[in-house]
Amino acid sequence: MSLRLSTVILPYRRWHEGGRSSWTRAEQLGFHTAYTYDHLSWRSFRDGPWFGAVPTLTAAASVTERLRLGTLVTSPNFRHPVTLAKELISLDDISGGRITLGIGAGGTGFDATALGQEPWTPRERADRFGEFLPLLDRLLTEDAVSYEGDFYSAHEARNIPGCVQRPRLPFAVAATGPRGLRLAAQYGQAWVTTGDPKLYENGTPEQSDRALRQQSDKLADACAAIGRDVSELDRVLLTGFTPDRSRPLESVDAFVDFAGRHRDLGFSELVVHWPIADSDFTADEKIFERIAMEAPAQLKQ
After folding, report:
1. By three-state DSSP, how is residue 296 classified?
2. Is the pTM of this model over 0.85?
């Protein structure tokens, strides 16, 4: 199985003070996709610079030609399907059909309360996501949509001419629970995981591998339940949140070993964080670039 290498570039730098150069360099290094987080703020970056995902990706689309672009991930925490669909169709057009929407149910971070609401419970998040994703699918594939749900409504929402990518841009659905996996099976062109968060602090790589295999098996079960071949979905691992942490980025050999393990688990795409000094994503930039340029060829051997 081939393995694609992608990166995620956090939107914390001003565009003309290093923001632009990261995206153009990602294309030069041969990354398959460059994603960004779609948050209003995030963890330790809350009190520092942080820019919007859609404007950042629009700018990135204007300075790249081949690199796929996407969110990792968008959620209902502060989005509405009607307005999001319009932005995505515009972004897909500007990029010439290079956009992937990473999307999930959201969590309990700063986004969950930024609009003044109380944080949703896991069940409420799942309920909303279960309505959000099917409606977004319709909005991106139909010229006009009317819908009245428990959480979201659309009244003759027009989305002409639709996406450049047909029937719509691909969804990469982040999920580990049963309801989310069912949505990934039904609507996803890819499935995204970060592993088992309970193992991050004290787990071992071996335990993480078992957990990822179990998640993959549950995805396969969800696909089988609706008669879909699970091989139709790409399997994407956003790295940095398993017990391996940043160790795979310490050398080319370390990364090739890590990537080979996860390729054998069935993953078709690994996403590594663009280095950020003095953060959880600290990494040697020269080694990072060597990994981007050398590891894919080694993994084909």
Report:
1. helix
2. yes
